[in-house]
Amino acid sequence: MKLTTREIAFLAKDFPKKTDISLFANINEPLDGSEERNLTDKGIYKDGKLTGEAKKILEIVANAKRCTRLILRDGLIYVEKYTYKVDDKIVMAENDAGEMVFSIPDNFNKTIYEVSEFIGMSKIKTADIEILLSADEMLVILAMVDIYRKKVLLTYQGQGISGETITLADISKQLEKPAPNSLVQMLKKNYKYTEPEEGKVKEIMESLIAKECAISEDGYVLTSEYAIFAKNFLIPETIIMIENFNLNKNNEMVVAGGLGVCAGIKDNLTFIFGINEIELTSASGFQMLQMIENFLKCPEIIEEETDIVEETPALPANKFCAECGTKIVSGAAFCANCGKKVK
Q1: What residues have CB less than 8 Å from 247, skipping those under 6 apart?
Q2: Most exposed of 138, 204, 251, 265 (fewest Cβ within 10 Å)?
Q3: Confidence of residue 325 (pLDDT cuts 50, 70, 90)
Q4: What pTM value is reported for the model?
Q5: DSSP of 136-196
């Protein structure tokens, strides 16, 4: 079933109790008077009412309290999909050149295969990184990764590089004026992150050294695993953004989300955005596909308790995901493998 945005806006009146995350609550398109006739011609409307199959699908979209949005960008290619969930029923809505195609999928095999055409299905990854960072720590480590990437790319042009050591001035420059197509630029531009306060970079570097991301060596160098990652994560091509929306018991919107960046069949980087921290993980294509599939199922977002006075104990060292069995990074909000919220 395919609908234009005007037809969706017209149908909104049929669902006076639509939820805030429903597509019908988020499209405001001026009508031109042809909508009812067009819907009747499509068999979606009859005698001024929705027909059976269309009503079944659109009632789920209208009443959903859980929704997931998936966006994939690769050059000029743009893929946008939504899933809406009521009880155990899920409807998928796909953007097709500005019109929305609705269906009730038996599974997500078609979508996962479509995404795999861009990121592959390999279980192999070049480097093994999994860490929880503050926003400032994330930007600083990405600045170092960007500098490594630039040096490696320059070698392909026959230009020599002056070792791997990076100065605080180098890092600060990349944070303040990130190079085009750099990871820092992507996060600052698309997610509105701002560089750390002036003078804080050295303090943040000490924190990253304590977390074994970097070493102080007449300046700074990345530790082995991060250096391997940086030297191979050279030209990002595919970007995948995924957001999960829930309405909680107070009918307030709760949002969780992640970002995946692919720079080769074995070089993917995922960001899971928590309230105060970001989980940064190198992932195989297979792991990214698992995470995307789990997000498409519109999982429940477990909200953080805010009325507990005593300090919450740290996660035990060997806590594992209840969904897929993957070991959880201490303090992580989501499983890096499947995307399930950690309880």
Answers
A1: 19, 20, 21, 65, 66, 253, 254
A2: 251
A3: low
A4: 0.84
A5: HHHHHHHHHHHHHHHHHHHHHTT-----S-B-HHHHHHHHHSPPTT-HHHHHHHHH---PP
Q: At 64, is the secondary structure helix, strand, or coil?
A: coil
Specify whether the CB–CB gap between 5 and 98 falls below 8 A: yes
pLDDT tens for each residue of 110-123: 999 999 999 999 99
CATH of 130-232, one of 1.10.10, 1.10.600, 3.40.20, 1.10.12: 1.10.10
Place of tokens 């700074």: 220
Distance between CA atoms of residues 46 and 48, nearest Å? 5
Sign of CA dihedral 171, 174, 176, 182: negative
Which pLDDT band, with edges at 50, 70 and 90, does 156 fall under? confident
Q: Is 47 exposed, middle or buried (0-12, 13-18, 19+ CB in 10 A)?
A: exposed
When pLDDT is cut at 50, 70 and 90, the band that residue 274 belongs to is confident
- What is the distance between the terminal CA atoms of the chain, rounded to a whole angstrom? 37
